[in-house]
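Extended Data, panel c. Modelled sequence:
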Amino acid sequence: MQFRAQISLSTKFLLFLLVLSIPLVTMGYQSHSSTIAIAEESEIVAIIKSEAKSLSILSTKDWSTIKIINLNSKPTSIAYDEDIEVFFIGFESNSALLMISSLSFEQLSHFPLSQTPTRILTTENYLLVTSKIAGSLDIYDKYNLTLLKKIHIGGSPSGITYLAEKNVVYVPDLLQGIINVISLTQLSIIDKINMGSTATLTESVIFDENYEFGYVPQTYQNTDNQNLQFDTAVFPSLSIINLNTNENLRKRRLGMDIVDQPVGIPFTGLIFNGYLFIANYASNDLSILSLDTMTLAAHIELGFTPFGLAVDKKNELVLVNNTLDETISVIDGNSLALVEHIKVAEMDESSQLIQGQRLFNNSDDPRLAKDQWIACATCHFEGGNDGASWFFPDGKRNTPSLFNSIQTAPFHWNGDLNEIQDVEFTIQDLMAGHGLSGGQPNCTPNCALDKSNAGRSRDLDALAIYVNSLQFPIAYTQMNALANFSAYTSGKAIFESEETECITCHTPPNYTDNENHLSDLSNPGGLKKILNTPSLLGLRDSAPYLHDGSAKTLSEILQLSAQTQNHGKIKHLTNKQSDDLLIFLENIQIPTQASITTEPFTVDNSFQRTPKNSLINLELTENIRRDATSSRLQVDLTYSSNLATDLYLAFLNRKTSDFIMIGHDGELNSLNTIVKYKAHGTAKALNTSTVVDLAFEPNDVLGLSLDFYAIAVSKDTSIIDSVNWLSSSKININF
C-alpha cells in the first residue's frame, strides 16, 4: 500500500487535527464555594443542611429525592469535582473532609485536614480549603489529598471563587474588607484588593460572563453614627472590581437599598442569562438585577437564610439553598419567576433552638428590626464579632463575641442585662423592632434586676436558647499545640501569680468574675465607668479591645496596664515575660464545657483518584529503520484513563496536508471512513502500552516530514466533535 493513498476527511476534522498539539478539553469546575453543588453530567444536585446534619441528593430530571445521607456532624461547605466524580464536604466541628461518590453515593473516605475548614472548592488540579480560625488557605492535590502549600492570609478568610481563565482564586476576608487574589500557578498571594475599612460580611466574588468584572455583595458600616440609627449605619451594597487590574471601582458601588427594597446581608450570588442573582442572607429574599442597566429585574421571597446558589444549565434554572429550612428554591432563569420550593430535608420545626437561630439571622421580621435593616447576625455573624465599635447611649462600645455567653453573664459592657432574654430592650429600643414579647410593654434597661424576662414569650426564649448554645469553634480547643509551648506555660504562670493579680477578676475557666467594676482603664485618671469584666476566651480573634475598642492590639493593653498599674500589676515584668504573657492571652485554652462535642470520624488516608477527563499519560516515541526493501516505523504509545475510551491514530503529510488513518489491525487504511485504532469499553483505570509497527515503500516516504497523532475520545462518540476529545499527543517524524 502506498503512503500517498488518501482518505477523504471533513474540513472540520482537518482543522481539528492541525491544532492537536495541545489537549483541547476544558473541564467545567464549580466556580465558587457553596452549600449546593450540581453534577451536570449525572443530572443530580447535592445539598447540605447544617442543622439537619444531612446531605440530600436530587435528580434534576424530575426533582425526586435519590438519597438522603446522615452526616452525624454539621456540614458547612460542599464542592463537586467532575473530573474525579466526587463530592467533598467540610464540617463545622471536624478537621476532616468527607468524600462521597457521585456515581454510587457511597461514602468513600474521611480525610484529616490541618485545620477546621470554613469553605472548600476544587480546581483543575487542587482542592482548596479556607480556615477562618487559622487565617489560611490550604492547597491540596485533589487526586491524593497531599498538602502542597499552606498560604497564611490572616484575618478571617471565608469564601473561595475560582477564575479558571486566569488560574487564580479570590478569597475575601469575611470582616476586614480585603479580597486576596491567589495565583494557582505560583501558589502565592499576588494581590490584595482593598474594599474599604468599613466593608464587612464579604463572602464571594461573582464573575461576569466575559470575565471583565467581579461583583461583590457586602455590607458597609458607618460606625461614626452617634445616634445608632441602623438605616443610616448599615448599608447593604454591591461593589464592583475590575478583574484585569484588580481595582476596586468605588464610584460604581451600588446601594442594594436603592436597587431593591431594604435587604439584609447580601452575601452570595451568581450570573446567568445576563442577570445577577443575589441571595440576601438576613432578609430571606433574592434580588435579581439586569447587568445591562444594573436595575432590579425581579424580587423573590425565599426560605430562611439563603446561602449558596447553583445553575442547572440544562434546564436553565437557578437553585438557592435555604440553609435554615427544609427547602431549596427553584427559579426560572428566563422568566425570573419562582418555580417552586422543593423540600429536601427533615428538620424539627418544633425545635426552639432552630427557631432561635432563624430569629438571630432574620432582618425580615418587624418584631426584630425596622425596615429589614439589621439582624443580630449583622454584628454577630455566626456568633462572632464584627470588629467594630458602635455609639450606644452610654458611649462607644466594642462588639463582643457571643461564644460561651451562657457562662459570662451579666451582658453588655455595662452589665445591665442579667439574662439573654433581656435583649428585648435592645430589640425594641436600638433595633426599633416591635419586640418578641407578644405585645407586652417593654421593660427598662435594668428590668432584670427586678424580675426575669424568661418566659415572656416562646420566641424570646428561643432566641436566648440559640445564643446560649453558641460555642467557640472546636479549633480553639486545639490552640495549646503551639510551637512555643514553653512561652505559653510561662505566660500562664505569670497570669496566675499573686503579683500580677490578673486572676482576681479574670478567673478560670471562663476568665471572668461575672461582676461589674468601676474602671478608668481606657481613660486613666478620667471618669470611671461601670464595666462588666469581659471573658478573655478567644482574644486572638476578637480585636479591637476594651469596652470602647480603643486598643487595637493586646500589646496596647499590656502597655497601658504597665503604665497605670490599675489593671493588673505588670510593671515589673521583663520584656520576655510580657511577651510570654501575650502568647498565653492569645491562646487561652477553651474550657471543656464550651467545646463542641461531635461523633469522631474514622479517618482514612488512602484516598486516591485518577483524573477522569484528561489522560494522565499519553506519550509517543518513534524508532525508524530503513533497508533496501522497506522503511519501518515503530511508535511506542503509552496512556492511561479511567474512562471508556476510543483511540484514533493518524498521519499528516505536512507539505500536502494529506491524511491517512491507522486501522484496528495496525494497517494503513484507505477507506473513506475514519476508523478506530483501539476501543476500551471499561470505565475503570486502564494502562495501555503498545507498539505501532508500520512498513512503507522506501521511495514513498523518503524525505517526507510527517505529523503522527494519537487522539483519545470518549467511547462511542464522534471524533468530529472536539468536546468528546480527552487528550492528544503528536510527534514529528522525518524519513
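The chain has a mean pLDDT of 85. This feature is highlighted in the accompanying rendering.
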